[in-house]
Amino acid sequence: MGLDMKTRKQICGEIFKRYQKAGKKGKAAILDEYAQTLGYNRDYLAHLLANWGKTRYALVSGKLVKAVAKPPVKGRDRAVGGKKTGRPEKYHAAFVAVLASIWELFDFQCGKLLAPLVRGMIGFLVSEFKLGEDIAALLRTVSPATIDRKLRKEKARYRLKGIRTTKPGTLLKSQIPVRVCFDRDERRPGFFELDTVSHCGARAMGQFCQTLTVTDVGSGWTETCALLNSAHRWVKEHIARTHAQLPFPMLGIDSDNGNEFINHQLLDWCTHHGIKFTRARPYRKNDNCFVEQKNGDVVRKTVGYARFEGHKALEALAEVYRFLNPLLNYWYPTLRLIAKEKLPSGRYKKIYEKDPKTPCRRLLESPHVSDECKAELRRRAALLNPVDLKQRMDKARDRLLKLSVIESTIPSGKVS
Question: What count of other Cβ atoms lies within 10 Å of the Cβ of residue 14?
């Protein structure tokens, strides 16, 4: 066990005069003798002994000021006379406590997304959390990096993975064209990617609930729908319901090769409504990257990996999504990939937009969306209270989790 700081200072106070008077070899011998004993680096000990007790004079505002070197004080917040020194802390403990509560309320968003989210709903937060003007002002100006730094101790989380349950559909593939990707010129609002998430727990046996995720490529608008199972009927009905409830037109859909999508019911419905229907290449999840990323970031993050089965669980899951969807589309900002650069090493550098935006804001800024649709978006947004939506969603999620069938083990695998 090494020496304490008080003992080290006493030893340095006794040997510094001998060190300052010694020659080159004498100083080297003193450093060899005491560096290991004191537990100091040789360079640091040499600097310490060479400047110990020395006096310097400096001209400050026309006056000669005397400065005497003293033992170093580690850190700006070292207490002197019972008080802290240095610059006062801007983001104090009370602010961090409020920030942590907001971060937890809105599903643990990262700093880049939480900062614009807080600024966009600061009026609701001030009312809900009864914030003072000082803390409200800090919330308006806090940077994403500061948010991540202040919440670092709160971010110890674990991520689970689920089971892949997609089964290939063998029928009608010749009638549904393959789409490898959406070119950047095609990424306009109205073209959607589809995928399902299985709530089977650790066993892909029997009947269990599914989530149908519908994501707009151009804006990031996402609708999640609860299904009793993956039957063709439920998938087609919920796509039709989403089509009817959207505030902007649906122009096309793109799915994987699962048999819940590749079937006559959905193909006939798309043909009847003039909606372009395409599919991805088999075993190429990146072809549906816009919706695949929502499986973990939206569905798994919200309802987890438990098993849900039966009509009661279906109703509870639908209730969660009833409050989640408006939060995602009107209040939660997202970052969009705008470019990829190939580096000399052969790797690719992804460049994201600097200003996170909500899907609603992207639609309002899009030249491809009509004024009537934009007016409807503004009307719907004016009716929403994000804090109330989130609290009601949390209560619905608690009711859902009480209906889950808990599995003893969850093996790792691909997120479906």
Answer: 9
CATH class of segment(s) 173-402:
alpha beta
The per-residue pLDDT for 354 is: 86
* Residue-range domain boundaries for the chain: 5-84, 93-154, 173-402
Q: Which residues of the chain have pLDDT under 70?
A: 1, 56-57, 66-86, 156-175, 177, 179-186, 405-416
What are the tokens at 1? 């066990």
pLDDT at site 317: 94
